[in-house]
Design brief:
The chain is of the alpha/beta class. It contains eleven helices and 13 strands. The protein has a domain of 227 residues: NAD(P)-binding Rossmann-like Domain (Rossmann fold).
Length: 338
């Protein structure tokens, strides 16, 4: 029997790629998305990749009446919850908006799931919950000291879900803390195209390479790293997508709460990424060093060993493929899904 999985935020960057991985694993994704930072034309692209267009519903996870109707009308086996705001800078400027969307939205979703008897949840968390780590690679038991409202919103949700699983031990919850998702599906049909000015490195680099932007502004060149720029653990979005499917399967095995890092275990600086992208695209990336960005930390990368042991998952695609796939997407879709 095909299991229907509700994918909140499923038209977004990571959500759409996870819909591909779900379909390839024999699940039926059902997308719920308010289209706040996504484009529903992704559904046609997903049909071209998987051979079947996923069903989708336009709506918000904060709409309890809509959620109740979905759970009443559909046989939902589990939920993968991506729907949330995700820009560090925006969260500093609008913390209340971030808490209202990310925290309150998850609470409404969880209450609707409980009322419907759907108790399997994979939650899209973030490595930002660690804040400025004492050391890298970062294990899951490292202290959580998020340095910005975005990270705090994710941590509040994690703590809420942990408390809820204690109170309702029949729940099956996996919290996935992922590091820096980049790349695109190898077909070049789906990828990342944020609305407005990109907040993340790779789409900005892509837009410079394709001529949409003049140059990349590097946020800080005086960090205590090898070249002075921030170091992050970049992980291919399809590796992440496959990690969500593995987490869902694990959650379906038995009740409990799991917290896992999804990353490569290796750090790359901003300038490392620029050089790798220049090699992949054959284009020169103009950049200048600007001031540090509030809420950013110098360097962090994952210890992904636990996900390897528990899920049998590991990142398989390196920085070269991340850049090549991102460039293929950007070249074929210079203005996203327009």
């Amino acid at each position: 029997m095909t299991h229907t999985i509700l994918v909140t935020g499923g038209a977004g960057f990571i959500g759409s790629h996870t819909c591909v991985a779900l379909a390839q694993a024999g699940y039926e994704p059902l997308i719920l998305d308010n289209l706040g930072n996504s484009d529903i034309r992704v559904v046609d692209r997903l049909a071209r990749i998987t051979g079947r267009a996923p069903r989708w519903i336009e709506g918000d996870v904060r709409d309890r009446a809509l959620l109740d109707r979905i759970f009443a009308e559909e046989r939902i086996a589990g939920v993968i919850h991506f729907a949330g705001l995700k820009a560090v800078g925006d969260s500093v400027a609008d913390p209340i908006g971030y808490y209202e969307n990310n925290v309150h939205g998850t609470w409404v979703l969880t209450q609707a799931m409980e009322a419907a008897g759907v108790r399997t949840l994979v939650f899209s968390s973030s490595a930002t919950v660690y804040g400025d780590p004492e050391r890298s690679p970062i294990p899951e038991d490292a202290p959580c000291r998020p340095a910005n409202p975005y990270g705090r919103s994710k941590r509040i949700v994690e703590e809420t879900l942990a408390d809820w699983q204690q109170a309702s031990p029949g729940w099956r919850i996996v919290l996935l803390r992922y590091f820096n998702p980049v790349g695109a599906h190898e077909s070049g049909l789906i990828g990342e195209h944020p609305q407005g000015k990109p907040n993340n490195l790779m789409p900005f680099v892509c837009q410079v390479a394709v001529g949409l932007r003049d140059k990349l502004v590097v946020h800080g060149g005086d960090y205590p790293t090898a070249d002075g720029t921030g170091v992050r653990d970049y992980v291919h979005v399809m590796d992440l997508a496959e990690g969500h499917v593995a987490a869902l399967r694990k959650a379906q095995e038995a009740p409990g709460l799991l917290t896992l890092n999804l990353g490569t275990g290796q750090g790359a600086s901003v300038l490392d990424v620029v050089k790798a992208f220049e090699a992949a695209s054959g284009r020169s990336i103009a950049y200048e060093i600007g001031p540090r960005r509030p809420g950013d930390v110098p360097a962090y990368w994952a210890d992904p060993a636990l996900a390897g042991r528990v899920l049998g998952w590991q990142a398989r695609r390196g920085l070269e493929q991340m850049c090549a796939d991102a460039w293929r997407w950007q070249q074929g879709n210079p203005r996203g899904y327009e």
